[in-house]
Amino acid sequence: MFTDTLSATVRGINALIVHVETDIANGLPMFNIVGSVGTEVKEAKDRVRSALKNNGISIPPSRITVNLSPGDLRKDTTAFDLPICIGMLTAMEYLPAESAEGILFLGEIGLGGEIRPVRGVLPMVMAAAKEGIVECIVPADNAAEGSIVPGITVRGASDLKSVIDYLIGKDDSVLPATHTDPGKLFADNSGCIPDFDEVRGQERAKRAAVISAAGFHSLLMTGPPGAGKSMIARRIPGILPPLTLPESLELTSIYSVAGKMPKGKALITGRSFQAPHHTITDQALVGGGGSVPMPGMISLSHRSVLFLDELPEFGRDAIESLRQPLEEKSIRISRLRYTVEYPADFLLICAMNPCPCGYFPDRNKCRCSENAIRRYLGKISGPILDRIDLCTSLKAVEIGDMTGEKSGMRTGEMAEMVARARDMQESRYKGTGYRFNAELKADDMDEICRLGSKESGLMETLYKKLSLSARSYHRILRVSRTIADIEGSYDITSKHLLEAAAFRPDLDYFRI
After folding, report:
1. What share of the chain is helix, strand, coil (3-state, %, to 5)?
2. Are 365 and 257 in contact (CB under 8 A)?
3. Could you give phi then psi for residue 337, rounded to 5 degrees?
4. Same domain as 342, residue 233
5. 99 contacts 62 by C-beta, under 8 angstroms
6. Cβ atoms of residues 138 and 106 within 8 Å
7. Is 430 helix (H, G, I), strand (E, B) or coil?
8. Around 390, how many Cα atoms within 13 Å sit in the side-chain half-sphere?
9. SS (H, E, C) 30-75
10. Predicted local confidence at residue 404, as pLDDT
11. What is the bridge-based pairing of β-strands 177-178 and 153-157?
12. Residues near 205 by Cβ (< 8 Å), separated by ≥ 6?
């Protein structure tokens, strides 16, 4: 008997529907799974056979063929265990022929029949809803994230027996539907993030953090150990606007595909803060690995903060691998037969010491030779520096700052400044494809960053005096547009241009 059961597989953070076709016929007993399948799928026959046996169901000595269609689409996931099992039970007439119609099945099956969680449930349920499928049966641990998708009924199953009982009787009490309202999951996460008022004596660096968050500009902080670079970086998520529902769904899809979803959690509702160690490999940072490329740290930082502390200590290849995603806001990973694309629109925050010992130019403490400093700073290439919009230096904290009362900008005040600037950008860029000032392309600068005659003259002077490149010139305009937005100004003034120029990366410093 022939049956067709619905399932799905992921490609990047998108999913495609897969038809699990099962045929049981007379002939030499064998169990074949075909359709461009990987090792995980081929091993399903042993898991399914043992699970059925341990649930009191015997497989007849027949020729069993399972085809996963479309056949030219690579499939590497244990999520096909459950649909293969249901297809076999239907073909064996253990289940009514119509019992599995219109239902999408996902789940790995243990040898005892338990149903274990799998990666990528959210994008697969979204694909099912888009195709008009009205019901999904998924592992119980994945039911929360699957039930976020509107217009489709999601049921969580913990074992094979409950799925069989439900398909036979269609009793909702056996496998109750899970419903999750995404609007109720969003909460104020600001209390989880330390306040900026704990950062003492670094108001200029705080100002740089506000500009960075407001326009999504990458930021590099330099300074001696203990100046507060890491403290500032870890507080930046607290001044970013809350995730919108579309952003949250996109980030949750990435976490789901990567297998990083916290158990029982339905939605990633807060912006993440990823701070990889400098020994991270290129693959772990940008993604890849094996026959199924997984999202890397830059994709897990999508719409969020990626913090690279001690930047020169990272491998040069790892640092250079950021060039393309910083420009294109995505990362493409190619394999022999296909290419996957993961979003990577992250806010890059970097921190570094000014020399190997960390105390240059204080020659009372620094004993590094000029050559050692040159080699250390030379690890950061010009093309990477060209993609960093803001650069600020932190000085050692004075004793007066440590012993006095807390002062300076607090997180709440800084968040209000960022929100004001984001509102202006949202209104300005509606329908243009832009979201932040950092994304502005040179072709649109004249219109969006229009300067008066006085400001144009100032920029001409800065261009000549500072020996700016075309990219540096446009960077100053983008940053000045953000500074004007923070202040609620529709016009870019000389004050905004001078402040933006003061935050430019000093390439001469890195050629010391």
Report:
1. 40, 20, 40
2. no
3. -110, -5
4. yes
5. no
6. yes
7. coil
8. 31
9. EEEEECCECHHHHCHHHHHHHHHHHCCCCCCCCEEEEEEECCCCCE
10. 64
11. antiparallel
12. 199, 221, 228, 229, 232, 392, 394
Band of residue 190 on the pLDDT scale cut at 50, 70, 90 = very low
Q: What is the CATH number of the domain that holds 253?
A: 3.40.50.300
What is the distance between the terminal CA atoms of the chain, rounded to a whole angstrom? Answer: 77
- d(C-alpha 182, C-alpha 192), whole Å: 20
Distance (Å, rounded) from C-alpha 76 to C-alpha 294?
12
CA distance 206 to 231: 11
The pLDDT value recorded for residue 399 is 65
Q: How many domains does the chain have?
A: 2
Predicted confidence (pLDDT) per residue in 368-385, tens digit = 888 898 888 888 888 888
H-state helical runs in 280-394: 282-286, 297-300, 316-320, 323-328, 370-377, 382-385
Pair 281, 196 in one domain? yes
Residue 13, in any domain of the structure: yes
Range of the domain at 366: 190-437
Tell me the H-state helices in 170-302. Answer: 203-215, 229-235, 245-258, 282-286, 297-300
Question: What residue type is assigned to position 252 of the chain?
Answer: T
312-319, Cβ contacts within 8 angstroms, sequence gap of 24 or more: 312/352, 312/353, 312/376, 312/377, 312/379, 312/380, 313/278, 314/278, 314/280, 315/278, 315/281, 315/282, 316/379, 316/381, 317/282, 318/280, 318/281, 318/282, 318/285, 319/379, 319/380, 319/381, 319/384
Each residue's pLDDT tens digit, 243-271: 988 999 999 999 999 999 888 788 998 89
Paired with 19 in beta bridges are 6, 69
Helix (H) or strand (E) holding 306: strand 305-308
Spatial distance between the Cα atoms of 354 and 407, rounded to a whole number of angstroms? 27
pLDDT at residue number 409: 86
SS3 per residue for 93-115:
CCCCCCCCCCEEECCEECCCCEE
User: Residue 172, Cα to own-chain centre: how many angstroms?
Assistant: 36
Identify the DSSP state of 398: P
* Residue written as token pair 């169901």: 57
Question: What is the CA angle 284-227-509, rounded to 5?
Answer: 75
Same structural domain, 119 and 31 = yes
4 bridge partner residues: 21
Confidence of residue 365 (pLDDT cuts 50, 70, 90): confident
**End of a domain among 403, 437, 471?**
437
